[in-house]
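Bug #77: duplicate submission created two jobs. Keeping one. Sequence:
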Amino acid sequence: MSAVYELKLRLGSDHVDCFRRLRTSALFGILQSASIRHTEELGAGREKTLDKGLLWVVTHQYVTVGRMPEYDEQIVVRTWPGETMHLIFPRYYELVSANGETLARGSALWSLMDRATRTVAFPDEHGVMIPGTVTGREVPYLTKLETIEAPNHSTFSVPYSYVDLNGHMNNTRYFDLAEDVTAAPEHGRILREARVEYSAEAKLADTVEVSWGEKDGMYYVNGSCGHPCFRMDLFYSAT
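Kept job's structure:
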């Protein structure tokens, strides 16, 4: 059992986009995978959660990117938990290159959801405890994003392929949705910062009303399923 978990991997074709850079959704998928693996190592894996009707869900994410790694590059993901705050489990991240260059840093807020009621579950009632670690390298986490009116609108129906074992659209797929409508990465722009808030589930075949706009390289993307579903602020640069 380690206070800081490390996951080493070499980026394959399934991780990158047409510019051979790590795809945004793949970046967050890697962070998610490392989070779950470490949580299991810390004794809060499926035996205490999934097998007992509890689901791990992420509510907020924040990442800054110094350099997006590329195809066939060896990277290391480091993650560690912060002190649990009643219902919330903070978690922190570092993405580094093989030679120690810091590529990205981030944070996230996780919680437990009751699979049957789809409401927040109290970890104390289920014996789920994760000890926090302080490294001095923690990135402040988000608690709230402001909804900004956006001029562009479209609708999206959640397909089967976007739904995960929690029975809703996986958080990584929201980045695919956002980047499809904004088209920033399609034009070669590089993600530098992502701020995300998930406020409700989007389930199979749900219709998501998406709105988005851009100002000075920052893209604002909002989603609603009859009520606010997610908010994203995504900043890109040309180089």
